[in-house]
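note to self — DONT lose this again. spent like an hour looking for the file last time. sequence + predicted structure for the chain T wanted, 69 res
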Amino acid sequence: MADTTEPKVQIPTSNDKTGLTDAFRTHFSGDAPLTEKAKSFAKARPWTSAAFLGVAAVAVLNTLRGAKR
């Protein structure tokens, strides 16, 4: 007889490369306001959020530096 059971679906586990992606999905999915999502992400991953803020600050400073008055 042929096996008629459905194949089992394997749930991928997080590793170092996909852990941050999984954290984004966890914290930024749902119906909560964006500020609440960002706060929960910052509490869960403070070093990553600090790095993102640092990169954003450098980008803003470079933008302002290039502005001509």
